[in-house]
Here is the input.
Amino acid sequence: MDQAIDESVKKQHQDKIHQVFHEVGKVVVGQEYMVNRLLIGLFTNGHILLEGVPGLAKTLTVNTLAQVLHLDFKRIQFTPDLLPADLIGTMIYNQQNSNFEVKKGPIFANLILADEVNRSPAKVQSALLEAMQEKQVTIGETTYPLDRPFLVLATQNPVDQEGTYPLPEAQVDRFMMKVYVDYPTKENELEVMRRMANLSFSGEVASVLTKDDIFSIRNEINAVSVSESLEKYIIELVFATRNPEAYGMNDLANYIQFGVSPRASINLNIAAKAIAFFDQRDYVLPEDIKEVANDVFNHRILLNYEAEADGVKTSDIIKTILQKVPINQ
Here is the structure.
């Protein structure tokens, strides 16, 4: 009986996830892929790095998603003069009672949009990434836990890189996925223009999920099964980025400086489970792994100067690996 109740609740959650896409679509046009990846991050406790030119509705999408999920949302614009205290908070002196009091920063929210994270110096980036990893912040001598769920969505602008502070590879690795946000299609852009040119457009959405739903969905995704053969397939994909010669890809060895870290195998497993759950399955298929491999790998494979000179992109490397590495049943 309990199992039947659990299955019924799980089906309700899966239906609600489809409602989330519907509600976000009332405001944001044609960014289902980005919404899908943001939900994967939220439901699997993984942070997302978004990269795209300005004006592609990254901020609007995150803000709308926060409303649909009934979560506290804060947007932080990273600038060269931003200080760690502007992010996490500081101690301020209260003259009335002659005491120092804690002024918490915007990091204390459920959804954090770190806009143009590469615009701020290393010490600010470090403060953000420490909060992402530890899920807590220390102000003065006191450590404060961050709100749960806690998800950082950081954006980078691929153009106008002058005066930026690129994230070091070790810090970029802390993001579960790096998602490239592309231009909308002609049809979608036409709809965006019509919708936003209507001055009476309200952009109101309904809340679909609660915090309790989110934590329940995390448990349900965790219960999705991955066969031993697919677990080994994930490991083979990971090792193919580190030692492509062993997989008959000698040409790739000339371009890859470093392969992916162990975080890649963990995140690829978890993300594939989420994809299966969204498709209302309790088991992972090879296609689920292949669908998210590019987003999990693309910021973890470090190419050398020869790859840049030959115009080889990380996505080309990943595509070749997915084609060449077999699935052993």
Notes: The first strand starts at residue 48 and ends at 51.
